[in-house]
Design goal:
This protein folds into two domains: 190 residues, Rossmann fold (3-Layer(aba) Sandwich), CATH 3.40.50.2000; 171 residues, Rossmann fold (3-Layer(aba) Sandwich). The chain is built from 14 helices and 13 strands. A seven-stranded parallel beta sheet has the order 3-2-1-4-5-6-7, with helices on both faces. A six-stranded parallel beta sheet has the order 10-9-8-11-12-13, sandwiched between helices. It is α/β, with parallel strands linked by helices.
Length: 369
């Protein structure tokens, strides 16, 4: 098969989980052998974004910028189909919610979740409506819709009125360690971010649904009895002012990929307070790093974390405070969660993601008209 991968949505270091998904899937596909060819269509911002260095992977740089969303949609609908034909693509897979509504070959689209409905009030009006219009129609016209959790599949089937047999779940995987180990010493990395003692870790994120204000309220209560710092890895969301951070909070700002694992691995525990998650990759990354997890009950998190986390109501600062304190104050319980996490994460890998995706390609290829 000659498979087109549509990454026109990709803004490196800005689109979060969908970038991790793209990198992980391509990495997994590259491990399955060289019997199929992959043509990866990228935008100008992703011209140097790393794709597998394998002879069956070809990068095609398209003359469009993802940051100019209306122009990107226009290009994706009118010019990408002609490029698919030119490159003799058998199947096109669009990884970021939206794909061309007409294609010269069968189409597959990944809808990781329906965040534009669940947390649409946090998005600009035009973005929310563009995303709803094009993603809904791309899903309806695709031969198969891929999503990343059973929680998301249920939402897609119910809200977009798509038959369950058309929606395939391919669970994701944690980062593969070899590519994310930093050559810098852990102490040097921690010092560069102002971390001086034991700490709780969380990801900041650029969206309001990450629920960081409630986490900060919970930490302000916890800090009266626990001698921990709170390290927010990454950018602060728009509803948090750096000048209003409680004492003991370290906001790192942008963190290079090779620093994420050292920062995560050395935390006493990891907290994910999100109001919505279509999957919850940070849970797996923390569990893989051997860090106890305390997270919210929102979205797919119970499905992904399994029995290897302590859960709280993300809308209750009191519940969040109590659950974090319970884990932070009990070393025996931390070790129990650590071991359960290491077991749970074995359910997930990018190779499994790739094999499930390849099975979709094969099904679509064999039934094409």
């Amino acid at each position: 098969m000659r498979i087109g991968i549509n990454l026109l949505y990709l803004l490196p270091c800005k689109v979060g989980g969908t970038e991790t998904y793209a990198a992980g899937l391509l990495h997994g596909l590259s491990q399955l052998g060289k019997q199929n060819d992959f043509v990866v269509f990228v935008n100008r911002e992703s011209a140097e974004w790393l794709i597998p260095q394998a002879p069956n992977f070809t990068r095609v740089i398209c003359p469009v910028a993802a940051i100019k969303r209306p122009r990107r949609y226009f290009f994706e609908q009118l010019r990408l189909p002609r490029m698919l034909k030119k490159h003799e693509v058998d199947i096109v897979h669009s990884l970021g919610y939206v794909g061309p509504l007409w294609t010269p070959c069968p189409a597959v689209v990944t809808l990781p979740d329906l965040n534009y409905q669940a947390i649409g009030h946090t998005m600009p009006f035009y973005k929310r409506h563009f995303l709803w219009f094009f993603s809904a129609r791309a899903a309806q016209r695709a031969k198969v819709v891929i999503t990343i959790s059973n929680f998301s599949k249920s939402a897609i089937c119910n809200r977009l009125k798509i038959q369950p047999e058309k929606v395939v779940v391919t669970l994701l995987g944690p980062r593969w360690k070899d590519n994310f180990i930093s050559s810098d010493s852990v102490s040097k990395i921690k010092a560069s971010y102002g971390i001086s003692g034991p700490y709780l870790a969380a990801f900041g994120g650029g969206s309001a649904h990450k629920n960081i204000p409630r986490l900060l309220q919970a930490f302000a209560k916890l800090s009266r009895n626990l001698s921990y710092q709170l390290v927010l890895i990454g950018h602060l969301p728009p509803d948090v002012n750096r000048g209003d951070l409680p004492e003991g909070v370290r906001a790192t700002g942008y963190v290079p990929a090779e620093h994420v694992l050292p920062l995560l691995s050395n935390a006493e525990l990891f907290v994910l307070p999100s109001l919505y998650e279509g999957f919850g990759l940070p849970v797996l990354e923390a569990q893989q790093a051997g860090v106890p997890v305390v997270c919210s009950t929102a979205g797919s998190l119970p499905e992904v974390a399994g029995e290897a986390a302590v859960f709280f109501n993300p809308y209750s600062v009191e519940d969040m405070t109590d659950k974090i304190a319970r884990v932070a104050g009990d070393k025996v319980f931390q070790e129990e969660l650590r071991q359960k996490g290491l077991t749970n994460v074995q359910r997930f890998s990018w190779e499994k993601t790739a094999r499930g995706t390849m099975a979709v390609y094969q099904q679509v290829y064999e039934t094409r008209s």
